């Protein structure tokens, strides 16, 4: 039976987050430069967005550019920014046709103005779509996000809008960039690296983690379905015992 038919549509994660890693190594294996790997990686992005939308997954967050990625050679950073613009240009129409809503988290002020403008334009054009929400993490790092949240919450206290004792998990969640987005139930990382790399540190507290040796440009629908199958085989206990879960106590 094709693997897609083995997936239980009633037990899908609402939110899948992905660290897309291995574009550079994949390109090297092909004897090509890193930018070639990123271009191939953009094709995997398209395939996984389509698959997630078709399955009825509600949120897909992709780590497309980390705060640390600014330290890469300028040529590579420029190529990634150009790839973002060309991908938004070529894909926005299809996002609209497929009812996909685009969002982005990250320090957008650090992005070049033309990238920011394109991104915000696509976000605006897709804002009323009701299918998959695609969240691009751009110039994002969780420590940056948590630092910003701390500043915002401190501001609320200074302005007497809340007291120190009011600060709870909800206030922290509400002041992250992912406000109103449920925490991911599943986080996937490709390329055989077993790290979280400053991605959604707060939001991944209870997520199932799935690591695969496949490099991102090799990660297609079948690989995505395998990750979902693996997720569905796990028992999510949230600190409870199996017996408590079984008897709903
Ligand atoms: C990691 O591979 C990948 C990135 C830093 C960038 C991700 C970008 C894309 C998948 C392409 C465009 C994205 C969109 C949303 C259109 P790496 O370069 O770290 O690979 P390596 O670890 O093998 O060097």
Which properties best describe this structure?
binds farnesyl diphosphate, 249 residues, six-stranded parallel β-sheet, 9 helices, alpha/beta, globular
What would you note in describing this structure?
There is one protein chain. The protein has 249 residues and is α/β, with parallel strands linked by helices. It has 9 helices and 6 strands, in the order αβααβαβαβααββαα. It has helices at residues 3-6, 23-29, 34-55, 74-97, 113-125, 142-158, 169-174, 221-232, 242-246; strands at 15-19, 59-66, 101-105, 133-140, 186-189, 208-211. Strands 3-4-2-1-5-6 form a 6-stranded parallel β-sheet, sandwiched between helices. The two termini are 36 Å apart. The model has no long low-confidence stretch (mean pLDDT 96). It binds farnesyl diphosphate.
What is the H-and-E element order?
Answer: HEHHEHEHEHHEEHH
Counted by DSSP, the helix tally is: 9
Which segments are poorly predicted (pLDDT under 50) over 5 or more consecutive residues?
Answer: none
Intertermini distance:
36 Å
Mean pLDDT: 96
Biggest sheet strand line-up: 3-4-2-1-5-6
Number of strands: 6
The best one-word shape is globular
Broad structural category: alpha/beta
Radius of gyration: 19 Å
What fraction, in percent, of the residue positions are helical?
40-55%
Bound molecules: farnesyl diphosphate
Largest pleated sheet: 6 strands, parallel
Strand content: 5-15%
């Amino acid at each position: 039976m094709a693997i897609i038919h083995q997936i239980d549509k009633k037990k899908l994660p609402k939110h899948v987050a992905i660290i897309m890693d291995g574009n550079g190594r994949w390109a090297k294996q092909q004897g090509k430069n890193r930018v070639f790997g990123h271009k191939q990686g953009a094709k995997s992005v398209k395939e996984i967005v389509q698959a997630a939308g078709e399955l009825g997954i509600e949120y897909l967050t992709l780590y497309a550019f980390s705060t640390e990625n600014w330290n890469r050679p300028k040529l590579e950073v420029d190529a990634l920014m150009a790839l973002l613009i060309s991908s938004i240009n070529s894909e926005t129409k299809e996002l609209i046709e497929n009812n996909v809503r685009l969002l982005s988290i990250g320090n957008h002020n650090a992005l070049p103005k033309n990238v920011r403008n394109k991104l915000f334009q696509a976000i605006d054009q897709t804002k009323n779509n009701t299918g998959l929400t695609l969240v691009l993490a751009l110039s994002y790092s969780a420590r940056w996000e948590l630092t910003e949240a701390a500043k915002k919450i401190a501001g609320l206290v200074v302005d007497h809008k809340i007291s120190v004792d009011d600060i709870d998990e909800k206030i922290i969640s509400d002041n992250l960039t992912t406000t109103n987005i449920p925490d991911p139930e599943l986080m996937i990382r490709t390329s055989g690296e077993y790290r979280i790399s400053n991605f959604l540190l707060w939001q991944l507290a209870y997520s199932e983690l799935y690591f695969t040796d496949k490099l991102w440009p090799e990660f297609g629908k079948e690989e995505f379905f395998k990750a979902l199958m693996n997720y569905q085989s796990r028992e999510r206990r949230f600190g409870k015992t199996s017996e408590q879960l079984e008897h709903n106590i």
